[in-house]
């Protein structure tokens, strides 16, 4: 393999951004390349546009139609009929009809209505704090100090919290979290992130210039996808994503008008990745699009698997051979529970594979403050590290992130604390360690319990939850129930989850929102922290429908 | 001029927008100074965009106290914080899932905060009702606009969505429009009339736009960014009527609604005016209004929160706003809480009320005085004139640059105002916004200057601009002369202008 491989992302094949203002030149030929959100007109004959067939509810192909109202002089400018057709393809499973119904049920309960359950349990979203997880005291103390620095004179806060707050404020414009930061993020935070990555990866060097702070990991993921997507027709960018997948990916690809290439995880082998399957998906996709990137979620969402080191090496070799840009979603890197499993970052494995790979394979890795032991979703903190990216593309990336002005500064401050927590000897170290360990232990325990409880329920089979925060158990849905669901125009697993919600108050996400092999049904279940319900056992679905 | 020539090619070949190039240059200079480079200025002052806290404007204590208590609930029991602060923090935490700012909020924002915002708008608009279902909280007003524009964007060629956009416009707008792939269709604001909107010009711009794209919306900022103009009711009615006649949706940036200080100026919202016009219009013209915590006296841009209110948008379309927000970057919760505090400040009788009022009053006075001071100081300079402003946080002075300078800019392949800003930055350490970033070139060159900065900072900025301007005008007209520091001091102390002609200094009275 040649060391001088051409980069997948080069300045020539990245979308041009900005208005070329430096020379006062107008955009010349940019129009076709820049059409990102305006849908390529869907033609039924074009297989390349068969996007996101996972959505439960597909609206028909967008068509202009002149309604009676449309003829009136005071017709509205923006209606459902003349709205951007691409947007209509975007569906988001995690917060779909089940969640709507859950909110209604909560309201009905609060109004005193009688239900077979006392409370709604939101096992649908990975929101630790909403489920009762307590924040790390030290983090919140520092953030409070940053918010109102007069508290630095208050004796109730430990000295290390104060000095940390002081340090963060020093790096904010005007010593205030209310100032905008650089679009790429606060420099000192990026440096701390780089040091954290070096420690995590056993000394592999990390350049702070390759760190971009983001508004949660999703911001970074969408930004990278946007940078990758270009071309028309058979040269339109294809992005490989795992099935089951986290719906952010399908939604973003639909909106960008990119081609979603599905590769299936192997449920029989604990949702592992299979190189043959990757190859199959890729070969088929090459017929109608230009595959450019491979997305991996490790530890897995929604499937909870942790990739082995061997598997990661295989994936990297595959990406190198097929010239694919790697996107590694590693937000659950501290959430590994199963014995014998360990988190290996793609970066570390890549760098240990030697210069043939480490100098050429392009990689973006994502992390956030929302998961692990922090669970601080509300702060929208995150970062991405980019490796082997072409310098000119980096300029474009910097421009792209500048459209978003800057990530929230409190989230950046929190990210800084996460990558640089209290050290042994500091006043807050003991309590930090205690809180962190308690949360991670509780999660590990619940992960085991989840597997055990679910596997006792008739009609449910569940793989071990090795990591992350979810399980994705398979459900057997009796023929009678499938027929009833079809009659209602619902996916069978949606029907199942709706029944589950109505009878037990447990809010799940149907597997169809994540994608699954035809004829199989699943749901995603967030392992709850404080309450695990035996309610599952009271759910007589299989009995009712058999 | 050697240092200038060295840097120009860099800026020129960098494929980054000029504001970013200037920013990078400013950072470089800042580093040089820190490493001991000899300059006659000790620090770089950035007044190119509104970032009040960075500039040294203090945050509002009430807002920061409540946020601190929400972040660290042990403070709820801390008696050193005012009672209303602790009560408010408790209420806000109850509005968060799990009682924690660390939980996700619903994608359209915390229900409690959306209701607060709707109540605020209803009060602000004298009872014109606002519904919380029409309020969508986003990670900044800029982000809200981005989300909404995604709904409007479509088509190719003649059907490509176009947005009528004022020139000048906020410097962040052109890049945003580009990013969501809608075409920018410029209409010129009328500088002679204090940057007012001319309906004739709107008509001209619309006609010009047709054939190139399909104009579907009109964007306007009121109070004007960067013009400082505040529209009166009649002007707003004209825009609404125009939008109705030509089937345009109105995108109203009303981010600086709190900052109106002109003697006869008053902020009236587009929504209030629209809903008070005849029923047919009130029920059909589509309007989206934007507001943010980065604005007004909060200045909390770093918290990234804003909202939009949608009017006359069909529920089917609203459904898609919700879907887009579902997988957009969700809004940081601390920012959402700050929004609540913005629309619902302490009331008379609350323990924090007096402090809050004093702090806001101080900011308001600073802003008003600064705006007047800039007009006064710049209008006496040769080659510069500045329309007085009525609101907002910017002024937008115009430059009359000598022909030789224009030629020099041409040779340097830079817009004259960009070159001007670059030279000013290098020679005096002041970063301004080149007018070119506010909507493209026009025959007239401008600079954008943010005035929500401490008074001392502003005086320093004016002193440096003045020195630079005088030197520049001298340098590019014969014979070349330099202005001494004494001249500058004289100019500022006395308000007398110094005009140099053929090397002679003339003091003359100032016309303000």
From TrEMBL, chain A:
Its EC number is 2.6.1.2. Residues 35-59 have a biased composition (Low complexity). InterPro entries: ALAT1/2-like, Aminotransferase_I/II_large, PyrdxlP-dep_Trfase, PyrdxlP-dep_Trfase_major, PyrdxlP-dep_Trfase_small. GO terms for biological process: L-alanine catabolic process. Residues 157-520 form the Aminotransferase class I/classII large domain. Its cofactor is pyridoxal 5'-phosphate. Keywords: Aminotransferase, Pyridoxal phosphate, Transferase. One of its GO terms (molecular function) is pyridoxal phosphate binding. It is an enzyme of class 2 (transferase). CDD domains: AAT_like (cd00609). It catalyses: L-alanine + 2-oxoglutarate = pyruvate + L-glutamate. The keyword Transferase applies. Residues 17-69 are annotated as: Disordered. GO terms for cellular component: cytoplasm. Transmembrane segments: none annotated. Pfam families: Aminotran_1_2. Pathway: Amino-acid degradation; L-alanine degradation via transaminase pathway; pyruvate from L-alanine: step 1/1. The keyword Cell division does not apply. Catalyzes the reversible transamination between alanine and 2-oxoglutarate to form pyruvate and glutamate. Homodimer. PANTHER family: ALANINE AMINOTRANSFERASE (PTHR11751), ALANINE AMINOTRANSFERASE 1 (PTHR11751:SF308). Belongs to the class-I pyridoxal-phosphate-dependent aminotransferase family. Alanine aminotransferase subfamily. This is alanine transaminase. It comes from Cynoglossus semilaevis.
């Amino acid at each position: 393999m040649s060391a001088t491989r051409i980069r997948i992302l080069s300045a020539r094949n990245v979308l041009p951004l900005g208005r070329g203002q430096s020379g006062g030149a107008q955009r010349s030929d940019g129009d076709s390349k820049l059409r990102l959100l305006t849908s390529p007109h869907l033609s039924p004959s074009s297989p390349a546009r068969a996007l996101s067939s996972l959505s439960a509810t597909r609206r028909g192909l967008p068509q202009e139609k002149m309604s009676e109202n449309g003829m009136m002089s005071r017709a509205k400018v923006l209606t459902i009929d003349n709205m951007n057709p691409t947007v209509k393809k975007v569906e988001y499973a995690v917060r779909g009809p089940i969640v709507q119904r859950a909110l209604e049920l909560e309201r009905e309960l609060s109004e005193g209505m009688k239900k077979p359950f006392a409370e709604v349990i939101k096992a649908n979203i990975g929101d630790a704090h909403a489920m009762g997880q307590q924040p790390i005291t030290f983090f919140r103390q520092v953030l409070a100090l940053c918010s109102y620095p007069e508290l630095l004179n208050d004796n109730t806060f430990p000295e290390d919290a104060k000095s940390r707050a002081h340090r963060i404020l020093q790096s904010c414009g005007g010593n205030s979290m209310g100032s905008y930061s650089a679009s790429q993020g606060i420099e000192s935070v990026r440096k701390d992130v780089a040091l954290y990555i070096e420690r995590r990866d056993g000394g592999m060097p990390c350049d702070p210039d390759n760190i971009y702070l983001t508004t949660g990991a999703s911001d970074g993921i969408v930004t990278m996808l946007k940078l990758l997507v270009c071309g028309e027709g058979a040269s339109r960018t294809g992005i490989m994503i795992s099935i089951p997948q986290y719906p952010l990916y399908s939604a973003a690809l639909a909106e960008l008008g990119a081609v979603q290439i599905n590769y299936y995880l192997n449920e029989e082998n604990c949702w592992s990745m299979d190189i043959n399957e990757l190859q199959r998906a890729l070969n088929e996709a090459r017929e109608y699009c230009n595959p450019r990137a491979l997305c991996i979620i490790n530890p897995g969402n929604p499937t909870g698997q942790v990739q082995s080191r061997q598997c990661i090496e295989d994936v990297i070799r595959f990406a190198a051979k097929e010239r694919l840009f790697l996107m590694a979603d590693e937000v659950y890197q501290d959430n590994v529970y199963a014995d014998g499993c360990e988190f290996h970052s793609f970066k570390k494995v890549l760098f240990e594979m030697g210069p043939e790979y480490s100098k050429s394979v392009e990689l973006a890795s994502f992390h956030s403050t929302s998961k692990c032991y922090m669970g601080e979703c509300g702060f929208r903190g995150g970062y991405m590290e980019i490796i082997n990216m072409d310098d000119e593309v980096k300029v474009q990336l910097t421009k792209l992130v500048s459209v978003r002005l800057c990530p929230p500064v409190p989230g950046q401050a929190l990210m800084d604390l996460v990558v640089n927590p209290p050290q042994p000897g500091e006043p807050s170290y003991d309590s930090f360690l205690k809180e962190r360990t308690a949360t991670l232990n509780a999660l590990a325990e619940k992960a085991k319990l989840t597997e055990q409880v679910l596997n006792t329920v008739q009609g449910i089979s569940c793989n071990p939850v090795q990591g992350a925060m979810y399980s994705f158990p398979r459900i057997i849905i009796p023929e009678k129930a499938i027929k009833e669901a079809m009659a209602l125009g619902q996916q069978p697993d949606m029907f199942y989850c709706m029944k589950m919600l109505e009878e037990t108050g447990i809010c799940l996400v149907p597997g169809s929102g994540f994608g699954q092999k035809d004829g199989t049904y699943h749901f995603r279940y967030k392992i709850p922290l404080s309450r695990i319900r035996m309610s599952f056992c009271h759910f007589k679905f299989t009995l009712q429908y058999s | 001029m050697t240092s200038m020539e060295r840097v120009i090619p860099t800026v020129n070949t960098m494929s980054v927008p000029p504001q970013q190039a200037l920013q990078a240059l400013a950072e470089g200079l800042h580093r040089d100074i820190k490493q001991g480079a000899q300059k006659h200025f000790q620090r770089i002052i950035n007044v190119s965009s509104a970032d009040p806290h960075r500039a040294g404007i203090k945050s509002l204590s009430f807002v920061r106290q409540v946020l601190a208590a929400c972040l660290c609930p042990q403070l709820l029991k801390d008696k050193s914080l005012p009672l209303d602060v602790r009560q408010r923090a408790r209420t806000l935490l109850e509005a968060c899932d799990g009682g924690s700012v660390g939980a996700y909020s619903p994608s359209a924002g915390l229900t409690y905060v959306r209701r607060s915002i709707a109540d605020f708008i209803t009060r602000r608009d004298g009872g014109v009702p606002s519904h919380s279902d029409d309020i969508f909280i986003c990670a900044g007003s800029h982000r809200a606009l981005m989300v909404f524009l995604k709904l409007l964007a479509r088509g190719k060629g003649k059907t490509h969505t176009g947005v009528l956009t004022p020139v000048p416009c906020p410097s962040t707008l052109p890049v945003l429009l580009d990013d969501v792939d809608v075409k920018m269709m410029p209409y010129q604001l009328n500088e002679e009339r204090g940057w007012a909107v001319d309906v004739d010009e709107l008509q001209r711009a619309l006609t010009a736009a047709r054939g190139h794209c399909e104009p579907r919306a009109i964007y306007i900022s009121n109070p004007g960014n960067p013009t400082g103009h505040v529209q009166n009711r009649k002007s707003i009615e004209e825009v609404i009527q125009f939008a109705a006649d030509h089937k345009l949706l109105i995108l109203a940036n009303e981010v600086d609604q709190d900052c109106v200080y002109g003697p006869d100026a008053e902020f009236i919202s587009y929504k209030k005016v629209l809903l008070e016009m005849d029923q047919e219009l009130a029920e059909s013209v589509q309007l989206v209004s934007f507001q943010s915590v980065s604005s007004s006296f909060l200045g909390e841009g770093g918290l990234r929160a804003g909202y939009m209110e949608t009017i006359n948008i069909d529920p089917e379309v609203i459904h898609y706003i919700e879907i887009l927000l579902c997988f957009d970057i969700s809004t940081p919760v601390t920012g959402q809480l700050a929004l609540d505090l913005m629309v619902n400040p302490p009331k008379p009788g609350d323990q924090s009320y007096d402090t809050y009022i004093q702090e806001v009053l101080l900011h308001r006075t600073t802003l008003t005085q600064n705006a007047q001071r800039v007009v006064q100081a710049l209008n006496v300079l040769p080659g510069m004139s500045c329309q007085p402003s009525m609101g907002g946080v910017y002024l937008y002075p115009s430059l009359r640059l000598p022909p030789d300078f224009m030629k020099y800019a041409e040779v340097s392949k830079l817009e004259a105002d960009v070159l001007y800003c670059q030279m000013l930055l290098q020679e005096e350490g002041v970063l301004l916004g080149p007018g070119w970033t506010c909507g493209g070139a026009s025959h007239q060159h401008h600079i954008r200057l943010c005035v929500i900065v401490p008074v001392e900072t502003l005086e320093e900025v004016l002193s440096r601009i003045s020195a630079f301007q005088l030197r520049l005008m001298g340098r590019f007209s014969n014979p070349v002369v330099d202005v001494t520091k004494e001249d500058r001091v004289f100019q500022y102390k006395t308000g007398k202008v110094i005009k140099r002609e053929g090397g002679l200094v003339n003091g003359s009275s100032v016309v303000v």
